[in-house]
C-alpha cells in the first residue's frame, strides 16, 4: 500500500509539471487532458492514504497532520494550475506549495515511523 501511495503522488508531481509546461506553451487542450488524469491520481492518492491510516493501530496527531497537509498539496495543485491557465499571479501559492511539500516529506520519511521502508 505504501509503494502504491508513493508511486501515485510521484506520478501526480510529474503530471503537474507536465501540465504546467503545456499551459505555459499555450497547449490548453493537452493540459486539460493531463489535468483529468491528474484528478484520477488525486483519488488514488487519497484512497491509498486513507487505507494506510486505517492500517495503523495507533493513530496520533502527526499522521492526521500529514493527511491534512497532503490534502492541502492536492488543493494547491489545482489552484496553481487554474491560476496559470488564467494567467494570474501564483507566487503565494508556490510559497505554500514549497512549505507544504517539505513538511509532508519530512513527516512521511523522517518523523513518522511508517515510511516506505516500514513493512506493513
Automatic annotation (TrEMBL):
Parts of the chain that traverse the membrane: 6-24, 36-54, 60-81, 93-118
Keyword Cell membrane: yes
Highest taxon above the source species: Bacteria
Key words of the record: Cell membrane, Membrane, Transmembrane, Transmembrane helix
InterPro entries named in the record: UPF0344 (IPR010899)
Location(s) in or outside the cell: Cell membrane
Topology relative to the membrane: Multi-pass membrane protein
Record-linked Pfam families: DUF1516
Protein family according to the UniProt entry: Belongs to the UPF0344 family.
The protein's name: UPF0344 protein JK635_09070
